[in-house]
């Protein structure tokens, strides 16, 4: 009879000496993404293989979606008709081109980071929007899904990309952005030049009336004082609204002060506790980047104040050696991607502004509550790397 306690787990050994075998090693991320041996070794009848190969070729050639296969160095091996038409090259021309030159320079760094994660096995695939440079020099906006192809031993051999042209959609989004911006400018100017002037006039009239009633020791003096206070408060709100709508250019060195002022204005206008925090080197290279970041923060705050029933909003600007990260966190109800408000014009404008400065933006649930809008700007888009970009 064994002296082993009944609750003690039994240890298996690989030899007769009773020496316990080492615990199994956890697979690396890359090993987890490899196809299993059963997936690679499934027997397929030759006839079916021939039919399947023909069918695949037909699908590859005639698919409306662009399909490209490139080796791990980034050299294009095969491209279907839709992919060639998208870029204006023949397949033979594409096979002779260094593929990295097809990726728009402003999108190369972000694309490269995803490729590196894919090759390291950290992700099984990635889906991204970026720009190609067509043969005629124009930019083609695309959305592409990229994954790896493996040989029989499970080693990665090629990239495969499924690519759809979204240039028309992006163009329409830009037109909407311009229309909305012009309308904001028109309304802001109307509030400032017309409505606010009238409000100032009404405030003066109400003040004169209150002074007259005070001299007459009228019983209506408290009501008149309340009227003056209400008109002044309304005038101040109109002023804040006009300042938020009229186009603002933020100096490259003035982003921190602009965000601080925005937080104070939001606290005053919406009666919501709004604060700004700054970490690390938050310097911005250009006025354009600073202005777009400010407007992204403003749009995210307006959405939180008007639609999320938030009581606290935090703006954080954090600088690292390679990125500038701005986040706006509110404590309203949790974010839901299926909510129609998350797909409105305001958030489309946020995404468009991010694209204008080659930034990425995500709108996700907060760690504990509410919604987080996070925008990441890469400081240097010209860094070179020997790793290939994806097709």
Could you please describe the fold and organization of this structure?
- By secondary structure, this protein is of the alpha+beta class.
- The chain has 3 domains: 33-165, PAS domain (Beta-Lactamase, 2-Layer Sandwich); 168-247; 250-382, Histidine kinase-like ATPase, C-terminal domain (Heat Shock Protein 90, 2-Layer Sandwich).
- The protein is built from 11 helices and 10 strands.
- It has helices at 29-33, 37-40, 46-62, 81-87, 91-96, 105-119, 167-215, 221-245, 255-270, 287-307, 345-356, and strands spanning 66-71, 76-79, 125-133, 139-150, 156-165, 273-280, 312-319, 323-330, 359-365, 371-378.
- The strands form 2 sheets. Strands 2-1-5-4-3 form a 5-stranded antiparallel beta sheet.
- β9 and β10 (371-378) form a beta hairpin.
- The termini are far apart.
- The model is unreliable at 1-16 and 381-386 (pLDDT under 50).
What does the largest sheet look like? Answer: 5 strands, antiparallel
Rg calc:
30 Å
What is the N-to-C succession of helices and strands?
A: HHHEEHHHEEEHHHEHEEHEE
Number of domains: 3
Low-confidence blocks of residues: 1-16, 381-386
What is the fourth-level CATH superfamily of the largest domain? PAS domain
Structural class: alpha+beta
Give the tally of β-strands.
Answer: 10
Principal-axes shape call: elongated
Indicate the CATH architecture of the largest domain: 2-Layer Sandwich
Specify the helix fraction band.
40-55%
What's the CATH C level of the largest domain?
Alpha Beta
Count of helical stretches: 11
The spatial strand order of the largest sheet comes to 2-1-5-4-3
Distance between the termini: 66 Å
| Amount of beta strand | 15-25%
The average pLDDT score comes to 80
Fill in the CATH topology of the largest domain: Beta-Lactamase
């Amino acid at each position: 009879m064994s002296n082993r306690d009944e609750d003690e787990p039994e240890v298996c050994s690989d030899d007769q000496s009773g020496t316990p075998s080492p615990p199994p090693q956890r697979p690396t991320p890359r090993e987890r993404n490899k196809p299993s041996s059963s997936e690679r070794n499934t027997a397929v009848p030759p006839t079916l293989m021939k039919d399947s190969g023909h069918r695949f070729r037909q699908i590859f050639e005639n698919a409306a979606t662009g399909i490209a296969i490139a080796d791990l160095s980034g050299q294009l091996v095969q491209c279907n008709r839709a992919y060639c038409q998208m870029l204006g090259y023949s397949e033979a021309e594409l096979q002779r081109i260094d593929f990295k030159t097809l990726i728009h320079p402003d999108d190369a760094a972000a694309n490269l980071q995803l490729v590196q994660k894919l090759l390291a096995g950290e992700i099984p695939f990635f889906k991204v929007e970026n720009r190609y440079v067509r043969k005629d020099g124009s930019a083609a906006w695309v959305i592409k899904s990229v994954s790896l192809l493996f040989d029989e031993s499970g080693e990665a051999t090629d990239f495969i990309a499924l690519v759809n042209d979204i240039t028309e959609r992006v163009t329409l989004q830009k037109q909407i952005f311009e229309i909305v911006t012009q309308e904001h400018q028109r309304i802001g100017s109307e509030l400032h030049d017309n409505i606010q002037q009238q409000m100032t006039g009404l405030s003066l009239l109400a003040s004169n009336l209150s002074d007259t009633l005070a001299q007459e020791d009228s019983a209506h003096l408290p009501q008149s004082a309340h009227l003056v206070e209400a008109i002044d408060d309304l005038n101040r709100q109109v002023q804040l609204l006009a300042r938020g709508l009229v186009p603002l250019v933020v100096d490259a060195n003035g982003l921190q002060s602009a965000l601080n002022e925005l937080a104070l204005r939001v606290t005053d206008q919406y009666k919501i506790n709004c604060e700004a925090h700054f970490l690390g080197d938050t310097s911005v290279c250009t006025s354009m980047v600073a202005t777009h970041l400010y407007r992204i923060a403003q749009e995210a705050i307006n959405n939180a104040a008007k639609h999320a029933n938030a009581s606290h909003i935090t703006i954080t600007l954090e600088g690292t050696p390679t990125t500038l990260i701005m986040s706006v966190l509110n404590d309203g109800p949790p974010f839901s991607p299926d909510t129609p408000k998350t797909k409105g014009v305001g958030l489309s404008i946020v995404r468009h502004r991010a694209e204008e400065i080659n930034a990425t933006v995500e709108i996700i649930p907060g760690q504990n509550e509410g919604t987080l809008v996070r925008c990441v700007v890469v400081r240097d888009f010209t860094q070179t790397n020997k790793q290939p970009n994806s097709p």
